[in-house]
Amino acid sequence: MKALVLNVGSSSIKYSVFDGEKRILTGIFERLRGNAQFSLSLRKIAGLLARKRIRIDAVGHRVVHGGTIEKPCRITASLLRKLEKVSELAPLHNPPQIRGIRTCRKLFSAPQVAVFDTAFHQAMPARAYTYAIPSGIAANYGIRRYGFHGTSHKYVAHEACRKVKKDIRKQKIITCHLGNGCSVTAIKNGKSIDTSMGFTPLEGLVMGTRSGDIDPAIVTFLMEKGFSRQKVYDILNHRSGLLGISGVSNDMRTVMKSKSKKAKLAVDVFCYRAAKYIGAYAAALGGVDILVFTGGIGEHSLAIRKKIIGYLKHMKIKNIVAVKTDEEKMIVREVKEVLRK
Ligand code: ADP
Predict the structure, then answer these.
(1) Could you tell me which residues come within 8 angstroms of residue 97 by beta carbon, excluding any fewer than 6 positions away?
(2) Residue 90's pLDDT is what?
(3) Which residue in 22, 207, 312, 327 has the fewest CB atoms around it within 10 Å?
(4) What is the largest CA-CA distance in the chain?
(5) Which residue lies with its CA nearest to atom 24 of ligand 1?
């Protein structure tokens, strides 16, 4: 089977073509603005495939927010209507992705499948996804933990099991995706039972520019001090995290090279927070068989892994592995699975 995998971001389109699980073509369009540029890029991809005489059998779309949808889905008009409803929860990502899907339905006759970042986490029990706020308000606005990076967590959990030759259906796994965005997931017998990103990708770990967990009272306190809603959003999403603490950069490599005290503190807070989550998820799982690191930082930085693991020595985790994530390959697997049924 030949499949085109599309990852439409807020200002870019990444594409890959797979023949089975082999990537035979890949590329990116960046700095896109407005519908017309997105649409033109997709038409260019269709043109490129035609010129190379590559006939695709399926198109897989990464979709950030699928609400409470539990599995990848074949794209239909009614699915698109559902996704439009949850767009409010991911205003930067879902709208361009939905427009991309609509354009692709005109460009390609092959069946199309949506694979959601949230889907893997929909197996979480209510005790993990419920926030302790009034239940009426939560229900009215769909406020609950959704979780993100699901495609990556699922992929690296399977890869790690393959590496250490264990059956995922019998393992307690903690996966740490540490890139620009960072999240930790507790996986029991192949299913996500808790994850650190929540209602939005802002919760949980310290990230490149995102704060992760803070006392929610800080938000209202800053607003009382005269910061607008937009300003607070911007501070927590774009000016916090490694960048906020260090004042140097959002990029871990740059922060680690800096000699400043604040940069050192940023790395300390980053690793300490990650270790705390791993400890918490060991409690959620009742033990840990495999600890997995991925994402640019998790995969490449031995120093950061060592610093995090340094807090966890007493846990005597048997298998600690670093794995390269491949969300596109996971999407191809999901597409195959959906179309097989
Ligand atoms: P994204 O989440 O955008 O896909 P990546 O997963 O590529 O990003 O992660 C980017 C982060 O990985 C950056 O903070 C970068 O500095 C960090 N990184 C990459 N290689 C290393 C390394 N060898 N040591 C420390 N950090 C690294």
Answers:
(1) 8, 61, 62, 63, 64
(2) 86
(3) 22
(4) 61
(5) 301
Q: Which of 93, 156, 246, 252 to mutate to test the pocket of ligand 1 (most atoms within 8 A of CB)?
A: 252
Instruction: For residue 25, give the amino acid letter.
Output: L
Ligand 1 atom 12: the closest Cα is on which residue?
Answer: 296
User: Residues enclosing ligand 1, CB less than 6 A?
Assistant: 179-181, 208, 251-253, 295-297, 300-301
Cβ-defined contacts of 190-194 (< 8 Å, 24+): 190/157, 191/123, 192/120, 192/121, 192/123, 192/124, 192/147, 192/150, 192/153, 192/154, 193/123, 193/124, 193/125, 193/128, 193/284, 193/285, 194/124, 194/128, 194/281, 194/284
Joined tokens for residue 10: 């807020």
Place of tokens 């926030």: 131
**What is the distance between the alpha carbons of residues 225 and 319, in angstroms, rounded to a whole number?**
48
341 pLDDT exceeds 90? no
117 assigned to active site: yes
Beta strand pairing status for 319-322 and 290-294?
A: parallel
| Ligand 1 center to 114 CA (angstroms) | 27
The 10s digit of each residue's pLDDT in 123-159 is: 999 999 999 999 999 999 999 999 999 999 999 999 9
What's the pLDDT tens digit per position in 177-215?
Answer: 999 999 999 999 999 999 999 999 999 999 999 999 999
For 239-263, write each residue's pLDDT tens digit. Answer: 999 999 999 999 999 999 999 999 9
pTM for the model? 0.96
H or E element in which residue 85 lies: helix 77-86
Residue 196: φ, ψ to 5°: -80, -25
Give the atom of ligand 1 at the shortest distance from the alpha carbon of 254: 16
> What angle do the packed helices 150-163 and 327-340 form, to 10 degrees?
90
Ligand 1 centre and the CA of 294: distance in Å?
Answer: 10
- Length, in residues, of the chain: 341
